[in-house]
Amino acid sequence: MRIGLLARRFDPAGGGTERDLIAAAEFLAASGHQLHIYAARRTIARWRGIEVSRLPVAALGSRTLQVLGFGLLAARAARAGGAELTLSFGRAIGADVIRCEGGAHRSYLQAARQWDSPAQSLARAFSSYHRVQCLVDAGAFHSSRLRAVAAISRLVAEDLRRHFGLDSARLTTIYNGVDLERFRSADSQRRRQLRAALQLDPDAPVAIFVGSGFARKGLGCLLEAWPRMDSRVLLMVVGEDRHRGYFQARAQALGIASRMRWLGPRQDVPALLAAADVLVLPSLFEAFGNVALEAMAAGLPVLLSAQCGAAEVLPAAWQAFVVPDPKQPEDLACRLSALLAAASELRAGARPAAEPFTWHRYGEQLLALIDKVAKS
Questions:
Q1: Which of 61, 162, 226, 355 is the most buried (most CB within 10 A)?
Q2: Per the domain annotation, does 182 fall within a domain?
C-alpha cells in the first residue's frame, strides 16, 4: 500500500515525534508498504530510499499560518501524490490515521493556567496561534475521513474522547518504545566513575530531573518540595528553559541552591541517568514522558505525577510513588523520600519493567492498526 506519512518537521537526528515517525517508517517499509514523507520542514530530501517532500507552508510566514497551512494541506498533498492512506504525526485535517502524542490543545491551555502568570494566561487567551491550534484540532478529529487515532497513552485517549466524542472503535493506545541498547543500567563501579566525572558525592542520594519546559514538567513544584528533603539529597537538572534563571533564583531564595546541579541540555543523558538513584518527573501536563521508560531501562526507579501518561506503565508496586497533585510539596517530598529509601531494592525491577516497551512492539501494533484500517 502507498502510505503518506505527514509531519510538521522531519529530522532523522531529532527526538520526540521524529523518533516516533522513524520507528513507524522503518517498520512499515520493512513490511512492504511504499512510503512517502510530507513535512512542513525537513533537513533532507531523501531518507533510506524514501522521498521526503516539503509542503509549501514554510513560506506562509508566521507560525500561526504554518500550523493552519499544515493542517489544511498535508493530507491533500499526500493524496494528490498517490497515497492510498495517510498517517499523520501532527494535526492534519483529512488524515486517515492520526498518531497523537498529545491531548486536545484546549486541555493544554487549561493546564497552562497552573504555571502561567496572569499576564501569560491573558496572552494565551488572545493568541491567534492558540486559537488556530484549537480550530485545527477540531477539524482533524471531527473529519469524516478520520478512521483511527493511535494515542500515546490512555490519558491522551480519554482526553480526546472527552473533547471530540471519539468512540472506542476509532481510539487505540500505542505506547512509544525505548532504545534498550542505548539506555542500560550500570554496576556500582561504573556508577562511582560516572559520579566522579560529574563531581558528585559518591555516597549522596541523587535524584535526576530531565526535560525542557521546566514549569510544565513540574520543576517549580520540585523546588518547593526540596527544603523538606534530607539535606544530603542532590538534584541534577538536565535540560534547557528560557526561564532557567528564574528557577535558579527560586532555588537560591529557598536556600537549596547548594543541593542543585544545573547541567543544561546534554547529549550524554544515558550516562547521567546511570549515575543517579531515581528519576523524578512531577509534571503538571505530560502526555507520556519517554524519559520515564529511558530511566527504567537504565535501572532507575521513577517518581511521576498522575498527570503523566507514563504512570500507566509503571509496575504495580511503584504506584505508591505516583503523586496525585505535584503542587502539594509535603506529599511530593514524602513520596520522593520513600522512593529514595527503597531505591536499592527497587532497582532490580526497573529494567524488566521497561523491556516489554520496544520500538518493535510499537511497530507491530501500528502495523496492525494500519492493516485494520485498510481492510475496513
A1: 226
A2: no
Residues 347 and 367 in one domain: no
In whole angstroms, give the CA distance from residue 297 to residue 290: 11
Residue 350 to residues 100, 281, 296, 315: CA-CA distances in angstroms? Answer: 27, 16, 5, 9
DSSP readout, 267-288?
A: S-HHHHHHH-SEEEE--SSBS-
pTM tops 0.90:
yes
Q: Are residues 244 and 333 in the same domain?
A: yes
Q: 115 and 30 in one domain?
A: yes
* Residue 214 falls inside a structural domain: yes
The total domain count for the chain is 2
Please give the residue range of the domain that contains residue 275.
188-354
The pLDDT profile of the chain, 376 residues, written as one tens digit per residue, is 999 999 999 999 877 778 899 999 999 999 999 999 999 999 999 999 999 999 988 666 788 999 999 999 999 999 999 999 999 999 999 999 999 999 999 999 999 999 998 999 999 989 999 999 999 999 999 999 999 999 999 999 999 999 999 999 999 999 999 999 999 988 888 888 989 999 998 889 999 999 999 999 999 999 999 999 999 999 999 999 999 999 999 999 999 999 999 999 999 999 999 999 999 999 999 999 999 999 999 999 999 999 999 999 999 999 999 999 999 999 999 999 999 999 999 999 999 999 999 999 999 999 999 999 999 8
Same domain, 335 and 367: no
